[in-house]
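Here is the promised in-class demo. Please do not try to memorize the tokens; focus on the logic of going from shape to residues.
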């Protein structure tokens, strides 16, 4: 039974069988063809037997070896590399059809690869998968259908019978920002170079002057000593940044964060941005914390910067679940007041579609801004932006553009009105969320507001 389960018929066999049937029909009209057709039929049966022996002959090692290489965890919203290694252990060239059983969450039926391997040849097939939901993904088997040079039968080999992989928030994006921050190349991903307006008065060291340094910090005595020994070179006094400031990401898991963009919900964009921002804050010697909320308070991770704290943040964000119910800002204010006693930077990831929706929550936002530095981050409606950029050709499109302009204007009004109460804001497209959030954090830090 195991033999028959792995035996399949190739397309070439069906074509050959159809040709024989047509020849038998022709022999009925032209009897002199019958002996030739009978010989061809016998040869056809013998070739099937030879092909079956080539593919299924007993050997110590299987004719084909395959192995799938998957990361221990996948990064949500990113292209994750998957590699399938193949080796032909047959003594003849083999044509392979590889079908990888990827998790059902991807809803893809096109993961089919073809390869032609010489005897003892190895090959690696690489492709990418982009998950759009956090959670556990179950990979099935790697199915390899093998054809001999005759190409009449197929033998199926199955490898990697099931593997469970967790999809975490975008740790690949976090590593990218971490690497660029360490090499001062954050501008490559849209992060601006922020000129520091002031500095703390905690002296750190005397170092050579660099472009952009405050000329008021030039140390003339050190400069003169350096000029006497090594030529003219300006020296400045360097001061330490203020450190260990609490930075909290407040993530709204309510109904307004369910809207999709490029496969991901706004909530997942906020979770990915929170992961990157927390890592940057820890690199800047600040303390990072997380608070999630919807119709009730979810989880609170106090701001900290001890070893292993980034891993705790990653695990907390990975396990976030929600039913996208109506958000309760009163519970949010009560939780912040009870658990966050020190003045902190609060980055509130939420969404307001209309100015009336913002007005309902404004009293709680003003109370939060009274005790903390509050930064409200909400999203542009990218579909409306695309609609406004298209010319109107009929009355219906004029009506739709008018409504779109009204909603877009209200978004800008929300930014203006929150600013009147001293509340910092970011209105951003989902794809620019991470860069804009990091930019704003660095700007607030450069201005000495945290």
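The designed amino acids, position by position:
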């Amino acid at each position: 039974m195991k033999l028959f389960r792995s035996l399949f018929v190739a397309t070439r066999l069906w074509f050959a069988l159809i040709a024989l049937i047509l020849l038998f029909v022709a022999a009925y009209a032209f009897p002199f063809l019958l002996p030739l057709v009978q010989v061809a039929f016998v040869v056809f049966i013998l070739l099937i037997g030879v092909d079956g022996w080539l593919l299924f002959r007993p050997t110590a090692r299987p004719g084909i070896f395959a192995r799938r290489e998957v990361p221990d965890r996948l990064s949500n919203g990113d292209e994750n590399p998957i590699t399938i290694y193949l080796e032909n252990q047959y003594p003849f060239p083999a044509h392979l059809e590889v079908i990888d059983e990827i998790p059902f969450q991807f809803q893809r039926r096109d993961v089919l690869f073809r390869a032609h391997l010489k005897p003892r040849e190895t090959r690696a097939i690489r492709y990418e998968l982009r998950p759009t939901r956090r959670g556990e993904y179950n990979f099935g088997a790697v199915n390899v259908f093998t054809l001999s040079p005759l190409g009449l039968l197929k033998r199926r080999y199955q490898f990697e019978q099931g593997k469970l992989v967790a999809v975490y928030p975008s740790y690949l994006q976090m590593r990218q920002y971490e690497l660029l921050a360490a090499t001062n190349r954050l501008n490559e991903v849209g992060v601006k170079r922020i000129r520091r307006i002031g500095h703390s008065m905690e002296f750190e060291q005397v170092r050579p002057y660099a472009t952009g340094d405050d000329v008021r910090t030039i140390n003339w005595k050190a400069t003169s000593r350096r000029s006497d020994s090594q030529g003219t070179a300006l020296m400045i006094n360097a001061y330490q940044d203020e450190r260990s400031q609490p930075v909290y990401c407040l993530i709204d898991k309510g109904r307004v964060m369910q809207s999709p963009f490029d496969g991901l919900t706004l909530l997942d964009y906020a979770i990915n941005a929170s992961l990157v921002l927390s890592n940057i804050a820890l690199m800047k010697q600040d303390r990072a914390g997380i608070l999630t909320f919807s119709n009730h308070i979810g989880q609170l991770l106090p701001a900290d910067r001890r070893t292993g704290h980034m891993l705790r943040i990653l695990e907390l964000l990975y396990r976030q679940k929600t039913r996208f119910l109506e958000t309760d800002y009163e519970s949010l204010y009560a939780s912040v007041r009870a658990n966050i006693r020190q003045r902190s930077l609060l980055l509130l990831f939420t969404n307001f579609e209309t100015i009336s929706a913002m007005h309902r929550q404004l009293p709680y936002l003003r109370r939060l801004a009274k005790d903390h530095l509050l930064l409200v981050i909400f999203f542009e409606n990218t579909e409306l932006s695309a609609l406004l950029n298209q010319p109107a050709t009929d009355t219906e499109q004029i009506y739709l553009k008018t409504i779109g302009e009204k909603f877009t204007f209200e978004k800008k009004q929300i930014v203006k009105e929150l600013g009147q109460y001293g509340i910092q804001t970011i209105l951003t497209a989902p794809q620019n969320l991470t860069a804009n959030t990091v930019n704003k954090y660095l700007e607030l830090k450069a201005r000495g507001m945290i």
